[in-house]
Design a protein that fits this description.
eight-stranded parallel β-sheet; TIM Barrel; globular; single chain; alpha/beta
Length: 250
């Protein structure tokens, strides 16, 4: 029994060391990318996407100073957030981001744990989130408008069309329990990410003219976050770059 416990503790130490090394490398890359264009690295926040990874990794990352975590499926996110909250050293300074396509029938669950919903792409969803938050007495859900940067994407892919961003922003801003946080997008597969992020930056700047409070631009994943920073991303969403390839984990 003692030997088995020692093996488990050693594995946990090894995994924590691996995550610490990955985090340090990513933070250095963020710093270099920001400074290269004259930005203060503190302007760029890291959100770690923990989908498919165990809650143990969330705890390890929290102990390493990570405070923002993202999930894309409510079925996984809800129990993971609840389990994390049960850990003895879990603080109330963690922010869960929901980044997946959200169905209106899931909003009652999503608002229980997510304080940032990055994938708001239609007025119906915004109104459902607002109703759910209001009914539960929550008045601080920050919503990002997910922008579709791929004109050839099927309609069920998710994301608001660029010409509908202004209308959707007004719906969110006028709600009772939601705050308009900014914009989010994913660079389309096969497209030049630089062109995609430049397009998103222009959409964001236009949004800021009428909604100066909407300062967040969430863009960039493990393969392209340095380019996203170049074009003004304030939040980058990284999974494998921090956590490693899922199939390689024990």
């Amino acid at each position: 029994m003692i030997e088995a416990m020692n093996d488990l503790e050693r594995q946990n130490d090894d995994r924590s060391a691996e995550l610490a090394d990955n985090l340090n490398a990513i933070r250095d890359q963020i710093k270099v990318a920001a400074q290269a264009i004259g930005r203060d690295p503190s302007e760029v926040s890291l959100t770690v996407v923990t989908k498919t990874y165990p809650v143990d990794d969330v705890v390890r990352l929290y102990r390493l100073g990570v405070k923002d975590f993202a999930e894309n499926r409510d079925q996984e996110a809800a129990p993971k957030a609840a389990t994390f909250a049960e850990f003895a050293d879990a603080g109330d300074d963690v922010t869960w981001h929901f980044v997946g396509q959200a169905q209106t029938n899931k909003t009652n669950s999503i608002v229980r744990y997510a304080r940032v919903v990055e994938s708001v792409d239609r007025p119906k969803l915004a109104r459902a989130l607002d109703k759910s938050a209001t009914n539960k007495g929550i008045d601080a859900i920050s919503c990002l408008i997910q922008v579709n940067l791929d004109p050839d994407a099927p309609q069920d892919r998710g994301g608001a069309q660029p010409d509908s961003v202004s209308e959707l922003a007004d719906v969110i801003a006028q709600s009772d329990s939601l705050n308009l946080g900014g914009v989010m997008a994913v660079a389309p597969l096969g497209a030049d990410p630089a062109q995609s992020f430049e397009k998103l930056a222009k959409i964001h700047q236009k949004l800021l003219q009428n909604h100066p409070e909407a300062g967040m631009m969430s863009a960039g994943m493990s393969s392209d976050f340095e380019l996203a920073i170049k074009f003004g991303a304030t939040h980058v969403r990284l999974g494998a770059a921090v956590l490693g390839q899922r199939e390689s984990l024990r």
